[in-house]
Write a structure and sequence with these properties.
By secondary structure, the chain is α+β, with helices and mostly antiparallel strands. It is built from 3 helices and 6 strands, in the order αααββββββ. It has 2 domains: 36 residues; 86 residues. Helices cover 38% and strands 35% of the residues. Strands 1, 2, 3, 4, 5 and 6 form a 6-stranded antiparallel sheet that branches. The radius of gyration is 21 Å and the shape is elongated. The termini are far apart.
Length: 134
């Protein structure tokens, strides 16, 4: 074996590269699983449609990659606590969602968007007041 001096560094680098690829795959699977939940999709849809959120963040509103929190679903019951970063042309914020699933239906105990700069909170569970047209 002529190039045995290369074997150890290349072997170590290959093992490290495989480990990094494995960790990235696990992270991607976890984030994809959270983003596929009904609570995540509903919270994001409510934020994108809420006039007060659109006014503060602008449109379009996009979700960030680093979702945090947990979901635990067991058939018709479960719980979810999520923190979803969002941004728009005018600013950034975080959606906080807390919900429990009972009898196959999600019920929110809290769903708010906190604006990053001002820490103002917009309750996404309240229906926005209709805009009066004069």
């Amino acid at each position: 074996m002529r190039n045995w001096k290369w074997f150890v560094p290349v072997g170590c680098f290959s093992i490290a590269l495989l480990f990094v690829a494995f960790v990235c795959s696990v992270v991607l699977i976890v984030f994809s699983a959270i983003k596929s939940t009904n609570v995540y999709k509903d919270a994001l849809a409510r934020a994108k449609a809420h006039p007060a959120v659109i006014e503060v963040l602008g449109s379009p509103i996009t979700d960030g990659f680093l979702v945090s929190g947990n979901t635990n679903v067991n058939g018709a019951s479960g719980e979810a606590n999520l923190s979803i970063p969002v941004s728009g042309p005018k600013g950034k914020g975080t959606i906080y969602a807390a919900a429990t699933k009972s009898l196959g239906r999600w019920n929110y105990s809290g769903l708010v968007l906190e604006i990053e700069k001002t820490h103002q909170r917009i309750n996404l569970l309240e229906e926005p007041a209709p805009v009066s047209s004069l």
